[in-house]
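Priority: medium. Attachment 1 of 2:
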């Protein structure tokens, strides 16, 4: 595995790979790898001849009140883990190179970012689409792999690629979970033992929603109030949103169908966790 820092070196490498007729799959990450990240890398290896993993904690997608400075980092461990997954390039751009002093451009996808996490975290998705757009231009991948854990992010990236006519195939990977069902996340390390067990209410809520839909319940309002009760039963857990939306448009649904997604964001202590499930048939991956 080769480690590349300079943006120009990354682009040079990509140009040579493309000139030789080979394909590139990109996995954008913010590091502190867990099994979810590794599954994305493996999928990238099945899609293309060469796998590039970018690791960049993107300041632009954090609000001033959010956890940028305490975001977990362990480059040595991440490097070892990526190497074991047959990653070809670990791309580590610096903040100064990505956002040089007179840097001013933003990429914003309207509409689809006005709901769910976009509503709760103003500017977040603009930061995400801006950095992903830059990575696409620097690396020129044929494929880019994103996790369905960040379901809205995946939808926003797909919309950006469609709207801007990028010739890149966006591939979603199912949510990878811990053995007890908690969705893997770099942020889980913030949880105390007590919070970690309370965090399971997200998965329990999702299991409940799927079971009720399978039993014929289609009233989104009813199901959301049941989910609210399940989550609120845990002290110290607060709800950011419980939503049922169309999987493509992200518009709210009043009647649940197989194209609906239930999406949750809750705060367990000081840690914001998200999870979601497709109400129709779906395959999820466990580590
Ligand atoms: P992050 O480093 O948190 O920005 O995540 C990098 C990529 O990994 C994103 O596309 C995430 O959606 C994906 N990802 C993170 N956690 C999981 C998970 N538990 N299952 C599947 N994909 C994930």
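Attachment 2 of 2:
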């Amino acid at each position: 595995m080769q480690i590349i820092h300079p943006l120009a070196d990354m682009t040079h490498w990509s140009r040579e790979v493309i000139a030789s007729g080979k394909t590139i799959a990109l996995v954008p990450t913010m590091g502190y790898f867990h099994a979810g990240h590794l599954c994305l890398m493996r999928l990238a290896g099945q899609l293309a001849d060469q796998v590039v993993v970018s690791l960049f904690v993107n300041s632009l997608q954090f609000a001033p009140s959010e956890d940028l400075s305490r975001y977990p980092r362990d480059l040595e461990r991440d490097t070892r883990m990526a190497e074991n997954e047959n990653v070809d390039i670990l791309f580590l751009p610096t903040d100064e190179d990505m956002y040089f002093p007179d840097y001013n451009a933003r990429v914003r996808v309207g509409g689809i970012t006005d709901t769910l996490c976009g509503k709760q975290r103003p500017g977040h998705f603009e930061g995400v689409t801006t950095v992903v757009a830059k990575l696409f231009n620097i690396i020129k991948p044929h494929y880019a792999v994103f996790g369905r854990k960040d379901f809205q992010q995946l939808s926003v990236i797909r919309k950006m690629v469609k709207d801007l006519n990028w010739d890149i195939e966006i591939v979603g990977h199912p949510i990878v979970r811990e053995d007890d069902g908690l969705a893997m996340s770099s942020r889980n390390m913030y949880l105390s033992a007590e919070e970690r067990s309370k965090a399971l209410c997200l998965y329990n809520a999702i299991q409940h929603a799927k079971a009720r839909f399978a039993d014929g319940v289609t009233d989104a309002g009813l199901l959301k109030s049941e989910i609210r009760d399940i989550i609120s039963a845990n002290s110290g857990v607060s709800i950011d949103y419980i939503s049922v939306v169309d999987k493509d448009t992200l518009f709210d649904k009043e009647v649940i169908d197989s194209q609906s997604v239930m999406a949750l964001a809750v705060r367990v202590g000081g840690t914001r966790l998200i999870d979601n499930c497709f109400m129709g048939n779906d395959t999820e991956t466990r580590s």
